[in-house]
Automatic annotation (TrEMBL), chain A:
GO terms for biological process: aerobic respiration. It catalyses: a quinone + NADH + 5 H(+)(in) = a quinol + NAD(+) + 4 H(+)(out). The keyword ATP-binding does not apply. One of its GO terms (molecular function) is oxidoreductase activity, acting on NAD(P)H, quinone or similar compound as acceptor. It is an enzyme of class 7 (translocase). This is NADH-quinone oxidoreductase subunit H. Belongs to the complex I subunit 1 family. Pfam families: NADHdh. The gene is nuoH. NDH-1 is composed of 14 different subunits. Subunits NuoA, H, J, K, L, M, N constitute the membrane sector of the complex. It comes from Candidatus Sulfurimonas baltica. PROSITE patterns: COMPLEX1_ND1_1 (PS00667). The lineage of its organism: Bacteria, Pseudomonadati, Campylobacterota, Epsilonproteobacteria, Campylobacterales. One of its GO terms (cellular component) is plasma membrane. PANTHER family: NADH DEHYDROGENASE SUBUNIT 1 (PTHR11432), NADH-UBIQUINONE OXIDOREDUCTASE CHAIN 1 (PTHR11432:SF3). The chain crosses the membrane at residues 6-26, 79-102, 122-140, 161-181, 193-218, 247-269, 289-306, 326-346, 358-378, 398-418.
Automatic annotation (TrEMBL), chain B:
GO terms for molecular function: 4 iron, 4 sulfur cluster binding; iron ion binding; NADH dehydrogenase (quinone) (non-electrogenic) activity; quinone binding. It comes from Candidatus Sulfurimonas baltica. It is found in: Cell membrane. PANTHER family: NADH DEHYDROGENASE UBIQUINONE IRON-SULFUR PROTEIN 8, MITOCHONDRIAL (PTHR10849), NADH-QUINONE OXIDOREDUCTASE SUBUNIT I 2 (PTHR10849:SF24). It is a peripheral membrane protein. Binds 2 [4Fe-4S] clusters per subunit. Belongs to the complex I 23 kDa subunit family. Keywords: 4Fe-4S, Cell membrane, Iron, Iron-sulfur, Membrane, Metal-binding, NAD, Quinone, Repeat, Translocase, Ubiquinone. This is NADH-quinone oxidoreductase subunit I.
Length: 420, 172
């Protein structure tokens, strides 16, 4: 049990970052298609099972892994050229390590943190590695010995430096508000209610939220701030000279960075793993009621999903009948979950806290995927900013705005603390 | 001379804030997303191999065909090399031979079109003085497994039928 609980956050980190990449690629393509009145990937299948097209992004990943590796002969610093994509990938991956997936759980009077790295300095770790990610890009652009790659990486670097400042300052105002630097305590703070609205970061600090979301888009080089790439003016950007899995690492790094920023936005501004009005103790004490609500929710969503499938899954594929397979899987999984949940609720002494932990993972996942949806949704709505526009926005608008925000926050916090 | 003064946009505070415009843009894309997610049947894409396009115009340049003479159904081509000369991709190969049956002086012994080289510009059709080569076959998908499958010879080109305007709109 000890080892399981200690390894669980690590496994979750790998799942949330690496294993979701095919799903994110699929989301990107499917949401793009639906926004643009198209259908998106729907043909690739394994014996009739298409998973709505996810099989195609899995096939894409396999293709990237098995492609031939080759080094362009003009590259002099082969070490830096090869180390650059892994640097981008590793820093994106390490950013994820400090995100709390659930509340601290106490079993047999021992407390376990649901963070891969149980540290209180989560925000600083995030800022450090989010900033380090751009080293992979600038190193790759420099080591490629290619003008276009160099230009792309310079644009990315200038942009990241510009936005790092505003991001750090908007975080400072959040640190002042919460009065703590530990991510877990920030989430605990957000489980309170503020009059009748939940005290989520987005409610108590809307300006810092907007600044942080904008800078998170810029830090991860996502549209509309993807100046590092530019098909029309700099060929492909910093990864012009990279092929096969070296390109794949950059590609995956972008998605992991997006997932990590999304996770931090969820943690700091959207209440983390908390439901509004319900803190962890409430959930643990009323766990049986919560279980019934979950079962009802699962039943309703499955019925809606089945109806949707019946209407939209109309392609006849050779092989298995997809609809029947999904129905069996969902019914089987729901039944299994109900059995496990009731076993824990009745038999196991710490069952309710384990159940609440699982529920909190689920809440976190739902919020994170909502954030992914927002990232993709923005990408297919807004056109790319021109380079000077990004610089102007970062230095002339976001930086002063975040400073003013810190000033106001400090006054309010001091006034509240010493006034009462 | 009337000078039309165009009003400059983007100077009010609301427009300079950008966020309202961004949110209205996101609302409109979300509307498309939810509409298509809840009802995919109105999406105008066609699922190509099963559904065929229905809007091909009669002027569409499909695979070439060689026409037949009205009188005796023999080949209309007189092997004048005009099409091969006009071809910018050099994809037409003609070997001429004297015509023994007295209908005309020459005819092609070999007439090959390499569809992998062809750019479907239609110059050959324009150049032909005898209306012997046409691109009105309506065939828009050419499929093969070998490079040789794409070299259409005289017999194959003669066997392709032209389709009528009505058949075009049906997307045959």
């Amino acid at each position: 049990m000890n080892t399981v609980l200690i390894l669980l956050p690590l496994v979750l980190t790998i799942l949330f970052s690496l294993a979701t990449v095919p799903i994110l690629v699929w989301m990107e393509r499917r949401i793009a298609a639906l926004i643009q009145d198209r259908l998106g990937p729907n043909r690739c299948h394994i014996n009739g099972i298409r998973l709505g097209g996810i099989i195609q992004s899995v096939a894409d990943m396999m293709k990237l892994v098995f492609k031939e590796e080759f080094l362009p002969s003009h590259i002099k610093n082969k070490f830096y050229y090869l180390v650059a994509p892994s640097l981008a990938f590793m820093s994106a991956f390490l950013t994820f390590m400090v995100i709390p997936y659930a509340d601290n759980i106490t079993i047999n009077e021992k407390t376990y943190y649901m963070q891969a790295l149980p540290t209180d300095l989560g925000v600083l770790w995030f800022l450090a590695f989010a900033g380090l990610g751009v080293y992979g890009i600038i190193l790759g652009g420099w080591a490629s010995h290619n003008k276009y790659a160099m230009l792309g990486s310079m644009r990315a670097t200038a942009q990241v430096i510009g936005y790092e400042v505003a991001m750090g300052l908007s975080l400072v105002s959040m640190l002042i508000t919460y009065g703590t630097i530990s991510l877990n305590e920030m989430v605990t703070y957000q489980s309170q209610s503020f009059f009748i609205i939940p005290a989520w970061g987005i409610v108590i600090q809307p300006i810092a939220t907007i600044i942080f979301i904008i800078t998170a888009f810029a830090e991860t080089n996502r549209a509309p701030f993807d100046a590092a790439e530019g098909e029309s003016e700099i060929v492909a950007g910093y990864h012009t000279e990279y092929g096969a899995m070296k390109f794949g690492l950059y590609f995956v790094a972008e998605y992991i960075a997006m997932a990590a920023s999304g996770a931090l936005i969820v943690t700091i501004f959207l209440g983390g793993y908390q439901l509004p009005y319900l803190n962890t103790n409430d959930l643990i004490n009323n766990f049986e009621l919560v279980l019934w609500l979950i079962i009802a929710f699962a039943a309703v969503t499955s019925i809606i999903f089945f109806k949707w499938m019946k209407k939209h899954n109309i392609f006849e594929m050779p092989g298995l009948d997809e609809k029947k397979v999904y129905a069996t899987l969902i019914i089987g999984f729901t039944a299994f979950a109900i059995v496990v949940m009731s076993y824990y609720a009745l038999g196991f002494s710490e069952g309710s806290s384990v159940g609440v932990m699982i529920l909190q993972f689920a809440i976190f996942t739902v919020k994170l995927f909502f954030l992914h949806f927002v990232f993709i949704w923005v990408r297919w709505t807004l056109p790319r900013f021109r380079y000077d526009q990004t610089q102007k926005l970062g230095w002339n608008i976001l930086l002063p705005l975040s400073l003013v925000n810190i000033f106001i926050t400090a006054i309010v916090v001091v006034g509240v603390n010493y006034g009462s | 001379m009337g000078v039309k003064v165009v009003e400059r946009h983007g100077n009010t505070f609301k427009e300079k804030l950008y966020l309202p415009a961004i949110f209205s843009g996101m609302r409109s894309t979300l509307k498309h997303f939810t509409k298509n997610l809840s009802d995919a049947s109105n999406i105008p894409t066609i699922c190509y191999p099963e559904e065929k396009p229905t809007d091909i115009t009669p002027r569409y340049r499909g695979v070439h065909r060689l026409t037949h003479r009205k009188e005796d159904d023999s080949i209309a081509c007189v092997a004048c090399f005009m099409c091969a000369t006009a071809c910018p991709a050099n994809c037409i190969e003609i070997v001429a031979t004297p015509r023994e049956d007295g209908i005309d002086e020459k005819m092609p012994a070999i007439f090959n079109i390499d569809l992998l080289e062809c750019v479907f510009c239609g110059y050959c059709v324009e150049a032909c003085p005898c209306d012997a080569i046409r691109m009105d076959s309506g065939i828009y998908s050419v499929i093969g497994e070998l490079r040789e499958d794409f070299i259409y010879n005289k017999a194959k080109l003669l066997s392709i039928k032209g389709i009528s305007k009505e058949e075009y709109s049906l997307g045959k």
